[in-house]
């Protein structure tokens, strides 16, 4: 049951992660610079925060790309589940690193944004 919950959270995290930064360009991947620009506009980031977040995004993309490729190539359900758990763990680490750079107010605003995105995804899936 605990593993099933982790898989569900992983799927949600992957969906959120892949679409949270792709609002304006649903079929193209935004560059790290574009994502930092969007976060800067949303959260009023300082130049120091921008540099740190850009580094986090670049590192995250480099770590996640092989996982997503492995997931798309995996045939076995068990293997897919394990990869999704790895993706979830990476995503959780990414969110923690990002939150460590943000102020409490920025973190709260970012969490509200993530929550609203998740609600929007739920509504679109029901339609």
UniProtKB/TrEMBL annotation:
Protein name: Spy/CpxP family protein refolding chaperone
Signal sequence residues: 1-22
Keywords from the UniProt entry: Signal
């Amino acid at each position: 049951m605990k593993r099933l919950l982790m898989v569900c959270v992983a799927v949600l995290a992957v969906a959120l992660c892949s679409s949270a930064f792709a609002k304006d360009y649903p079929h193209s991947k935004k560059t790290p610079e574009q994502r930092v620009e969007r976060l800067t506009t949303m959260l009023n980031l300082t130049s120091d925060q921008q540099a740190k977040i850009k580094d986090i995004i670049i590192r995250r993309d480099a770590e996640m790309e092989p996982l997503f490729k492995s997931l798309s190539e995996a045939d076995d359900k068990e293997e897919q589940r394990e990869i999704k758990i790895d993706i979830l763990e990476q995503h959780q680490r990414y969110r923690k690193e990002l939150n460590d750079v943000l102020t409490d107010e920025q973190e709260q605003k970012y969490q509200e944004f993530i929550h609203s995105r998740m609600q929007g995804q739920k509504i679109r899936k029901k339609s």
